[in-house]
Every structure is written in C-alpha cells, then in structure tokens.
C-alpha cells in the first residue's frame, strides 16, 4: 500500500495576496476573527485568491467492533446496522443537517455485522463483518487494515467535491478511538475514555480497564498503522484513508468529533501535512476530545456540547465555511465603497 504524498499548503506569495484581500474589506483588520483565518486557509488549500465552497460532501462510515464483547457499550451491536438503515431512509440527524445545508451525503458500510444486500445509496466497502475483540488479539490483520485504508483513498478518487466532511457509526467505536488516542498520544487512559452512548461512572471505569488491558496486550505495536490494526475499526481506517486521499486532492477536510479525530491522529502520524487541510468543526462533549484537539494544536469552530457523531458537527459548521469565502468574495473594499481607512 502506498501512502499518498501530501503537499503543505503554505505559499508565501498567495498568503500575502489573500491577506491583502482580507484586510482591504470594509472592516477593522482582524475583526472577523476566525472567519478571516478560515478564508485564508481555504484559499491556500484551493490555491486561489477566490476560494469557494460549492460542492460540500459528508461521508458517514459504519463498522462494528469486536470489543463490544467486553460490555463497553450501553447499546447492543445491532444498533449499528439499524442506524445505517435510518441513514438510508433519511431519518437521522445527519440527514436533516446535510439536507438543510445543501451537502451531499454518502453512507459507507466499511464493516458492519449485517448483510444489507445491494441498496441504493449505500457504498458497499465491507472488509469483514466487524473487527475482532482487541482484548484477545488485534482488531484487524495488517492486510485488512491496508484494505480499509485503500478503500477510503479509492472512494475519494470518485468524488466531485471541494469540502469533504466525515462522520461515523459503530457501537463500541468510542472505545476503539480512546485506545488509539492513548496509544498514539501517550495521554493517560483515564483522560481518554468517556461515556460514549451513555455509560455511567461504573461503566466508564470498566471501559478504561478494558483499554488498559488492550494497551498492555499490544505494547509491541509501535508504527502508526500497526496501532490502527491493533485497536481501530474498519470505519476509522476507511476515514483515515479518505482523509489522506482528500488532502492529496486538495479538498478541505471537515473534521467532526472524537472518533473522526482519532482517524486523523493516525493519518497525521503517517502524513503530518494532512493537518494543513483540516477544519475542526466542533469540540465534542465526549471526554477526551478537547485533549485530542490540544494534542494536534487544533482550534474548533464551535462548542455545542455535541456527542452524537454521524458528521453532525461538520454539517452544522458548513455555514461558517460559506461565510468565510463569501465575505472574501462579496464584501466591498475600502476603495470600492469610498470608506476611509484607519488613520495613519
């Protein structure tokens, strides 16, 4: 498997031209705050002084996790396939928010423990019917991990979009994400695990013990992709591959919450330049996500106490991306509006 080459977005000449356009708008310099930085970033990603958000898309990847055998979720594994059915029927939160914001939505079966058959609107990329229990062995083989990554890269090759957001569905995947986080960052397990779908304090303590046990078992997994194979999910690996492929194609990567950011931890470990392409939609209410963002040096656009996943935070952030490129394109300049500039 070949990891895509990703170019850093920095371009001093283009950055200076973007800064001039931003500062020449009829406002005090810096007064649009994060939107100014966002306009600059999107311009650098698209190599344009006139960036656009014209074709946003969100991919929601689903997969099951063998670690649910350890009793780490408040819900049964069957909820994964049931929620995929809900996505396909248009009844989930991500369906509502994507439609509201004019965003294409793609649903991927990366490894659900259910046979859907051929279904309109479902991308069939099943590697296996769920991962194995990572408390007894690796969640996936190296070959399965590579296949999931490659499937994500290949999926992006067929997309026509300028902004690519990511969502997920998989009972047990906050446990996988917490294990990846602890393994890749060195942050204490107690600061990585959270309530997930609604565990009480006793359930969270058990979840932390499960992750600790798995970290000891897989202490020999050192390379980023070995850690992904040891702890990850097929949906997490698919997303990591899609992030790498999307950055190579110079898409804006719209990052959702805890699980999607765990996929980014892997992608950034193998290709650090992928971070240049990332816009972090929100800080999840799931314990550990803020520490993940801090580890990456990332600043989220919103704090809405979300912890649903599905890509909902990304969909809700789309109006902010549009606002950033629209002020750059549509606001008057000081000269065009005959507005006096700052004294001196």
TrEMBL record:
GO terms for molecular function: nicotinate-nucleotide-dimethylbenzimidazole phosphoribosyltransferase activity. Pathway: Nucleoside biosynthesis; alpha-ribazole biosynthesis; alpha-ribazole from 5,6-dimethylbenzimidazole: step 1/2. Its EC number is 2.4.2.21. The active site is at residue 310. It catalyses: 5,6-dimethylbenzimidazole + nicotinate beta-D-ribonucleotide = alpha-ribazole 5'-phosphate + nicotinate + H(+). The keyword ATP-binding does not apply. The chain crosses the membrane at residues 225-244, 251-270. SUPFAM superfamilies: Nicotinate mononucleotide:5,6-dimethylbenzimidazole phosphoribosyltransferase (CobT). Keywords: Cobalamin biosynthesis, Glycosyltransferase, Membrane, Transferase, Transmembrane, Transmembrane helix. Pfam families: DBI_PRT. It is an enzyme of class 2 (transferase). GO terms for biological process: cobalamin biosynthetic process. Belongs to the CobT family. Catalyzes the synthesis of alpha-ribazole-5'-phosphate from nicotinate mononucleotide (NAMN) and 5,6-dimethylbenzimidazole (DMB). This is Nicotinate-nucleotide--dimethylbenzimidazole phosphoribosyltransferase.
């Amino acid at each position: 498997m070949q990891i895509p080459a990703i170019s850093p977005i920095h371009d001093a000449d283009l950055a200076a031209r973007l800064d001039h356009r931003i500062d020449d708008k009829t406002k005090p310099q810096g007064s649009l705050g994060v939107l100014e930085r966002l306009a600059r970033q999107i311009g650098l990603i698209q190599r344009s002084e006139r960036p656009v958000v014209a074709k946003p898309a969100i991919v929601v990847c689903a997969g099951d996790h063998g670690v649910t055998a350890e009793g780490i979720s408040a819900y049964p594994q069957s909820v994964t396939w049931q929620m995929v059915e809900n996505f396909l029927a248009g009844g989930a939160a991500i369906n509502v928010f994507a439609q509201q914001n004019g965003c294409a939505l793609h649903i991927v079966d990366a490894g659900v423990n259910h046979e859907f058959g051929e279904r309109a609107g479902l991308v069939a990329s099943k590697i296996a019917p769920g991962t194995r229990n990572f408390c007894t062995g690796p969640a996936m083989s190296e070959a399965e991990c590579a296949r999931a990554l490659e499937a994500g890269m290949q999926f992006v090759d067929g997309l026509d979009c300028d902004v690519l957001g990511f969502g997920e569905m998989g009972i047990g995947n906050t446990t996988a994400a917490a294990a990846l986080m602890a393994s890749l960052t060195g942050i204490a397990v107690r600061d990585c695990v959270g309530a997930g779908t609604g565990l009480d304090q006793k359930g969270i303590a058990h979840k932390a013990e499960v992750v600790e046990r798995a970290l000891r078992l897989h202490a020999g997994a050192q390379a980023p992709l070995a850690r992904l194979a040891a702890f990850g999910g097929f949906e997490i690996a698919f997303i990591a591959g899609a992030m790498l492929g999307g950055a190579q194609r110079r898409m804006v990567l719209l990052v959702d919450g805890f699980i999607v950011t765990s996929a980014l931890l892997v992608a950034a470990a193998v290709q650090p330049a992928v971070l240049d392409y990332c816009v972090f939609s929100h800080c999840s209410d799931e314990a550990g996500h803020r520490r993940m963002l801090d580890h990456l040096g990332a600043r989220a656009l919103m704090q809405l106490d979300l912890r649903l996943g599905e890509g909902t935070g990304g969909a809700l952030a789309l109006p902010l991306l549009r606002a950033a490129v629209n002020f750059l394109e549509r606001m008057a300049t000081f000269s065009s509006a005959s507005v006096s500039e700052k004294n001196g």
